[in-house]
Design brief:
The chain has 940 residues and is an alpha/beta fold. It has seven domains: 2-61 and 822-845; 64-191 and 786-815, 3-Layer(aba) Sandwich (Rossmann fold), CATH 3.40.50; 198-292, Immunoglobulins (Immunoglobulin-like, Sandwich), CATH 2.60.40; 296-401 and 590-684, Class I glutamine amidotransferase (GATase) domain (Rossmann fold, 3-Layer(aba) Sandwich); 407-575, Rossmann fold; 692-774, Macroglobulin (MG2) domain (Immunoglobulin-like, Sandwich), CATH 2.60.40.1930; 849-939, no CATH class. The chain is built from 20 helices and 48 strands. The strands form eleven sheets. Strands 17-16-18-19-35-34-33-30 form an eight-stranded mixed β-sheet. It has a seven-stranded antiparallel β-sheet with strand order 36-37-40-39-38-41-42, with no helix packed on it. The longest helix has 29 residues, at 847-875. It is elongated, with a radius of gyration of 45 Å. It starts with a strand and ends with a helix.
């Protein structure tokens, strides 16, 4: 044990200051000689302590304890050897010495403490339980974690148990630090047994292509054996090619031919299917390219011929387009980005696939696509666009608002629940579709304004939802969900009760929707129908399937001013109910001739409106959104042509049709072609992205997105929107990290191609937008030919390879010195002595009393030692010692057999207590004469 000084050169001040104190003592003439000597001693000690504190004094000693941390690789590449790794640590724990401290850390991409550092001899290790991301191996992070956990005053040892195949970070960065700190580093290598294994190493495609260009897709496949396999090449979701090949042991290259037939981002995936294989997660890889082409338009129609007039105009304009039906619409962002603009022609929302509806908003908002929706009796509100992505993207609300808001509505839904309604197709029954339809009607009505009631009937009827003002939609949905199919079919009683319920309502619009799939009574309706007409209650009917009485249902609907529907496809039932709910309001479908009014000048009317506009024969009612711009409106101020900017893209709502039913006067109009050319050009216009670029880099399970802006004179609000391979949209804030450079991070969860869109704005105005893609491959843990840096580091002398648990604690360990800074203790003692110095000089404390105080402290210390000795003796007696009192070296004791007699024992007599017949008790009768003599002396 010794002392260490941070600034030893300051020690020279001690003799100098001591000499100064001795010299200055001559000015203490008025103080008594004894007090003067005390003050000089105190000041010398105080200044010495001060100098020692300024020197940074530490107490040092040789460390004899060793802390060992086990770093256990829990990544996927060691999964097969997990039990062996755990057993190695368990055996090593059994061999620990009395002065060893042990701890366990598991790691993959992250690191987690499994066993905290402990010297407890009973401590043991069971197994790896931490939540480790096994997709990556980050040995550098594991070593850094270990260094942060080591106690300061201990020798240190790290035992790494791993295959050494790190794929994130670099252990070489920290190896030198381990050596400089004298840490004993040992490496237990886990051999990786790949067996019969095949993996796709990479897929290479050109970074960019020109439309029509032929190019190669180069696939590299690694194999540990020679065998046959099948290789499939996918472009997007379509299989482009498939080949049977013979794999050789090692690296194999194969070339596929393809042609850039469509513009935009194009993703590729390669899948290999070998005869023999151990791990399937490495059997596919992805890549992407960007095909530069002139803008292409996608036209979507619901019924054949609906888009015929638009197709003629696109052909005449030499626009590259594709025509598909609603069910064949693209379902992913990658497929939609092939097109610069998408036009729907009187399309029902239910006929569009879920992928299209889920991707449409991001296609327009984040990737700058254009969207034009044209009207008809199956579009907008009547097409079920409300509360879907179509309504979000379009510049109009589907419902009527403001001065044309629909009056209060009361609607009763009468649903057949007879036994035949349990039938269906593809596992979906007619009654399930009816319940979905009822919920769709509920969602089309207004909370707090409209009323709804739901009845179910078979041979009898019952109220599922009593007519009520809509407040709790969730509760109403739950009640609708209780409908079960069973029984026969009787319509009239249910219809009568629905009428009786509605006629008392104060709603301006009262409507009934009746759905059935069977036959019911054919007579007895006349009086009821007359009463319904008298009270302005309308009725629409839905005949489900071929067995329904279509004639009766049509007659009921026609008599009561409603509409009759036939649903041969059960899946159409929800859209019928939704459409019927809006039609009941009588404000959405406008079949009348009018001349559109120019509401605002806009570029889409350039070369179009100079000579006036033809009349239209009808349109679908809607409401302008707050930030949208109405270009044309009806004579009742309803929007006919509305445009707006939605994120990076643009959207247009044309509330009349394009087939000629309502736009018959526009088809022969010589400026109709120019109008639609302007509209398509408006949606295709994009932001100039020459001033910005974006790139993606990956480090483990994190990706870094970097957007660079050439204009470094101002800071812009920057965000990146990422579409994952599963279609999930993720928005990431990009923070400025350098002039003109903005970065953000993203968690990588799925393999495949990610679409990335960067956007920069200032005061809400879009300044730059840029797009790119990034292909994420399977985890490098599943690669065949991974390399280990640890073997090289050990060979260079940074550690030692071990094979057995007993080798963990073997070998010579470089013993280090422990060190503890005692500066705080020196300063505390200095302060105490300084106060004593002041007290000696200012409070006139007697040096004799000071000596007596010191002697008293010393005597008390000796007395405590004797008491401890006596107490140990008494505790060995049969009767437990309960209390005692002492004066100097005299102990008063009382015999347990005699409650009257008291005894005093001096040090010589205390041994008699070993007989166990005495216990110590408090007493106030015993007098210490030595203390009286001392007090008498003080008085003199």
């Amino acid at each position: 044990m010794g002392l260490n000084f941070t600034r030893p050169y300051l020690l020279i001040l001690i003799p100098i200051l001591l000499a100064g104190i001795i010299y200055s003592s001559k000015w203490l003439k008025r103080l008594p000689k004894n007090k003067k000597r005390w003050i000089v001693i105190l000041r010398s000690i105080i200044l010495s302590l001060l100098i020692l504190a300024l020197c940074g004094t530490s107490l040092t000693w040789e460390l004899d304890k060793v802390t060992t941390l086990f770093l256990v690789d829990a990544s996927d590449s060691t999964r097969a050897s997990r039990a062996d790794l755990e057993e190695f640590v368990k055996e090593a724990y059994k061999l620990k010495g009395p002065k060893d401290k042990l701890g366990v850390i598991s790691f993959g991409d992250n690191a987690q403490v499994e066993n905290f550092i402990s010297s407890d001899t009973s401590a043991s290790f069971s197994n790896i339980e931490g939540k480790i991301n096994g997709n990556y191996t980050n040995i550098e992070n594991a070593l850094t974690t270990a260094l942060s956990l080591f106690p300061s005053n201990s020798n240190k040892r790290i035992v790494l148990i791993s295959d050494g195949e790190e794929n994130v970070g670099s252990s070489s960065k920290i190896a030198l630090s381990l050596k400089e700190q004298g840490i004993d580093f040992k490496f237990k290598k886990v051999e990786k047994n790949t067996g019969e294994e095949v993996s796709v190493d990479k897929v290479d495609v050109p970074e960019s292509l020109i439309l029509g260009e032929d190019f190669n897709v180069v696939v590299t496949i690694n194999s540990t054996i020679a065998e046959s396999a099948s290789i499939s090449l996918f472009s997007g979701t379509s299989k482009v090619s498939e080949e049977k090949v013979q794999l050789e042991k090692g690296s194999n290259k194969f070339v596929f031919k393809d042609k850039a037939v469509a513009g935009g981002f194009k993703s590729y995936k390669v899948l290999v299917t070998p005869e023999k294989d151990y791990e399937v997660k490495n059997n596919e890889a992805s890549a992407y390219t960007n095909v530069v082409a002139k803008p292409k338009v996608l036209v979507i129609q619901d019924t054949k011929g609906e888009a015929a007039e638009l197709v003629k105009m696109l052909t005449a304009s030499s626009v590259d387009f594709t025509l598909v039906d609603a069910k064949s619409a693209p379902s992913t962002i990658q497929d939609m980005n092939v097109y610069k603009s998408i036009i729907t022609c009187n399309v029902l929302a239910d006929n569009l696939n879920d992928g299209f509806k889920n991707s449409l908003e991001s296609y327009v908002k984040d990737f700058g696509g254009g969207f034009i929706a044209t009207g008809g009796d199956n579009s907008f509100a009547l097409g079920g666009y409300a509360k879907t992505s179509l309504e979000k993207v379009l510049p109009v609300y589907m419902d009527m608002r403001g001065k044309k808001e629909t009056p209060k509505m009361a609607m009763i839904l009468i649903i057949d629940k007879s036994g035949s309604m349990s039938e269906g197709v593809a596992g979906i029954s007619k009654v399930d579709m009816a319940k979905e339809a009822a919920i769709r009607s509920l969602e089309s009505l207004r909370v707090g304004k409209d009323e709804i009631g739901v009845m179910a009937f078979d041979g009898a009827y019952s109220w599922v939802v009593k007519k009520q003002l809509i407040n709790d939609t969730d509760a109403i949905k739950d009640e609708i969900g209780t409908i079960r199919a069973d029984g026969g079919t009787t319509i009239l009683p249910a219809l009568e009760d629905a009428y009786n319920s509605l006629k008392t309502s104060d709603a301006k619009i009262k409507h009934i929707i009746l759905l059935t799939d069977g036959q019911a009574e054919n007579t007895g309706y006349d009086n009821l129908l007359k009463s319904m007409n008298k009270d302005n209650i309308t009725l629409s009917t839905v005949a489900v399937g071929q067995d329904a009485d279509k004639t009766l249902l049509a007659s009921l609907a026609n008599t009561c001013g409603g509409r009759a529907y036939v649903a041969d496809e059960y899946t159409n039932i929800p859209s019928i109910f939704s459409k019927e709910t809006f039609l009941a309001a009588r404000t959405y479908l406008n079949n009348r001739e009018f001349t559109p009014i120019i509401n605002s000048d806009h570029a889409v009317l350039k070369g179009v409106a100079e000579g006036g506009l033809p009349t239209l024969l009808g349109y679908i009612g809607a409401t302008q959104k707050e930030t949208a711009r109405v270009i044309l409106r009806s004579d009742e101020d309803d929007p006919i042509l509305t445009v707006w900017q939605y994120g990076l893209g643009k959207a247009v709502a044309w509330n009349s049709d394009i087939s000629g039913k309502w736009s018959a006067n526009y088809i022969p109009w010589d400026k109709n072609l120019k109008l639609w050319q302007n509209l398509i050009n408006f949606t295709e216009k994009n932001y100039d992205n020459e001033n910005a670029s974006i790139e993606v880099t990956q480090q483990g399970s994190k990706a870094t997105i970097t957007l660079k802006d050439k204009n470094i004179n101002e800071d812009l609000d920057s965000i990146a929107t990422v579409i994952s391979p599963t279609g999930e949209s993720i928005e990431t804030k990009l923070n400025i990290t350098a002039p003109g450079e903005y970065t953000g991070t993203l968690d990588i969860k799925d393999n495949g191609v990610y679409m990335v869109s960067g956007k920069q704005t200032k005061n809400g105005e879009i300044i730059n937008s840029v797009k790119t893609g990034y292909a994420v491959q399977y985890s490098p843990e599943y690669k065949i030919n991974n390399s280990s840096n640890l073997d090289k580091l050990v060979a260079e002398g940074y550690g030692k390879i071990i094979t057995e648990p007993k080798e963990v604690f073997s070998g010579d360990l470089e013993h280090k010195q422990g060190e503890r800074d005692i500066t705080p203790f020196l300063l505390a003692l200095l302060l105490i002595l300084f106060m004593l110095d002041i007290g000696t000089r200012r409070l006139n404390i007697s040096t004799y009393k000071l000596k007596s105080l010191i002697k008293g402290v010393r005597d008390k210390s000796s007395q405590v030692k004797h008491l401890i000795k006596y107490e140990k003796t008494f505790k060995q007696a049969p009767k437990k010692v309960t209390s005692y009192e002492t004066i100097d070296n005299i102990i008063e004791v009382k015999s347990e057999k005699d409650d009257v007699n008291n005894y005093t024992l001096d040090k010589g007599e205390a041994a008699k207590a070993e007989e166990g017949t005495v216990k110590i008790t408090p007493s106030s009768n015993t007098l210490d004469t030595s203390e009286l003599l001392r007090k008498k002396k003080f008085k003199k």
